Amino acid sequence: MKPNTVTRAIQDQVEANRSGMGHAETFAGHRARLTQEIAARAPAGGKGRLCLLGAGNAFDVDLDALAARFNEIHLVDIDGAALEGARSRVLPGARGQLHLHAPVDISGSWDRLGEWVRRETQVDSWRAEVAPAAARVVAALPGPFDVVVSCCMLTQLQLALLQEIGDRHPAFESLRGLMNAVHVRVITGLLAPSGRGLLVTDLTTDETYPLDVVGPDADLQKLMADLVSVGNVIHAAHPGLLSAEIRRDPVLAAAFNVRFPVGPWLWHNGPERIFLVYGMEISSKAGEAQTRDKTDNKTTGEKMAKAPAMEPGSSEMPAGTPAAATAGTRLGGEPLGIVEMDNVIPKLYEDLIEAEANSLGWYFHAESARPNLGFAENYGGFYHMSYDGLADNPVGSAINAVLVPLLFIFCDKAKIPFNNLIRVRLGMFAKTPIDVEYHNPHVDFYVPHNVALYYVNDSDGDTVVFNETSDQIDLEQSARHANEKKFTQLKRISPKKGRMMAFDGRHYHASMHPM
Asked: Exposed, middle or buried: residue 5 (CB in 10 Å: 0-12, 13-18, 19+)?
C-alpha cells in the first residue's frame, strides 16, 4: 500500500471532476430525473435540509431547482474546487443556501487503509471497523438532514479501492464489503428522525451491455432485472448486497425501511459513457409511522412497508398491494386484496424456471408446515432452500438468479412496493391418493411480512388462504385449531404454470398435494 493513499484519492477525484467539465449538457436526462426524485422527498414548506454526498461538479442535480424546495443544501466532496465551481454556477439569490464541505473523505477510511490491508485477521473482524469509519464521516458534517443523497458515489469509492490494492489482494473482498457497509451507515447516520436517504448508484455500463441502443420507451426495470439475473452488474452496486446492509443488521432493520429500485434510468456521462442507474430509498420507520398517524387516507402502498417473505414450486416472495385483486377480499381487516396474476413473465422465462427447478437438489420433510408441533396428520413434501436471509451467512443457490428478477417484474406489474427479502423456498409435493381438503395451516413467520407464490408448473394441488391470522392464533394454538378443523377458508388458488399470487403473510395458509 502506498503511503499517500489520501493524497492519491484526492488527486484522482480532482482529475475526474476536471475531465467532466464541458460535458454538463450530456447529464441533462440524469440530472432531471435525480432532481425530480430528490424534490419529491423534500419536506413541505421548503424549510428542509438537504445533504448531497459526492456532489463534485454538481452536474447530477439542478441546484437552482432544489434551492426552491430546501432551505439549506450541503454539498460534500473531497474536491473543494469542484464545489466552489458548482456554487458559482447557481443563481446569486440561491448561493447563500449552499454550504460547502471539503475535503471530506466520504469513505471514512482512506487514512486507515494502509494499516488495514497489512493486518492479518479474520474476515469477521473487519465489521468492527464499520461503525467508527461511518462515525468519522457523520461527525464531519452538520447533520441531521431531512434528505441525504449519495450521488453515484459508491462505485467511485469502490473503484478507488480497486486501483489502490487490486482485486488479487487477500483483503480486497473484505474491504469491498466494508466500503458498502460504511456508506450505508453514513447515510442512515446523517438522517433526521423522519428523514429519507437516497443511495443512487450506477449499476451497469455500456462497456458490458449496449446501452446506446436502448430506446426511449424501453422497459428499464425489466432490463435491470435481466442484467441482475445474469450478473452483468457492478458487483458492489448489486441491490441485494446494498439492501442486505440494513436487513441483516438488527439495529438498522428495526429502525429503517428499504425500497428499491427507484428508477432505473440512463445516465449519459460525457459523450462516450452511458450507465444504467437506480436508487435505493432508506426511510425511518418512526417517521413513516408518524406520517401514517397524520392521515386518514392510508394507501395500500403505505401498508406494505413491512418485511416480506419469498416460496416457488410454489415460490414464496415479497408481496403487497393488489393489482388484479379478488373483489371483496379483505385481509386482516385491512384493505389488502389477494393479488392473482397470470402470465407474469414470457413463456420462455417460465420454461427456464421449470427446467432449473427440475435440476435442483431436493430434500424431504415429513411435515411440510411445522414439524413436531402436534398436528394430528403429517403431510410430507420436498423442499429446496434457494435463499435464507435469516441465516448467519446467507448464500443463494443458482436458481435464485432467475427467481429474484421474477419478483421484481411481479412487483412492478402489480404496483407493489418492494422492501426486503427474507426467504426464497421451493416446495414440491408428489401425487398422493389421500383425499383431504388441504395440508396443515401455518404461517411462515410470526412477525409482519408478506408472501408471494409462483407456480412453476400446472397442478391440481390448490393453495388455501384462511381468514384466521397470527394476530388471532399464535404458534401454540395453531395445531389445536387445525386438528379441530376450525380454520375457515378465505380463498383457494389453483396452481397454473406462470401464475403468481400475493397475500398478507399474517394469514394462515396451506398447501395441497396433487391427486
From this structure: buried
Please check whether residue 195 is in contact with residue 144, taking contact to mean a CB–CB distance below 8 angstroms: yes
Is the pTM higher than 0.70? The answer reads no
Q: In what order do the strands lie in the sheet with 423-428?
A: 363-365, 381-388, 423-428
The per-residue pLDDT for range 168-220, each reduced to its tens digit, is: 877 777 788 888 889 999 999 999 999 999 999 999 999 999 999 999 889 99
Most distant CA pair in the chain, distance? 80
Residues 29 and 132 in one domain: yes
Q: Is 515 inside a domain boundary?
A: no
Alpha-carbon gap, residue 455 to 493, rounded angstroms = 10
Q: Which three cell numbers stand for residue 119?
A: 493486518
Per-residue pLDDT tens over the stretch 405-441? 999 999 889 888 777 788 899 988 887 767 778 888 8
Q: What is the CATH number of the domain that holds 132?
A: 3.40.50.150
Are residues 208 and 143 part of one domain? yes
User: d(Cα 376, Cα 482) in Å, to the nearest integer?
Assistant: 8
Distance CA 333, CA 330 (A): 6
Cis peptide leading into residue 216 (ω within 30°): no
Same domain, 362 and 501: yes
- Count the residues in the chain: 515
Q: How many domains does the chain have?
A: 2
Q: Which residues contact 410 (CB under 8 A, 6 or more apart)?
A: 317, 341, 344, 416, 452, 454, 500, 502
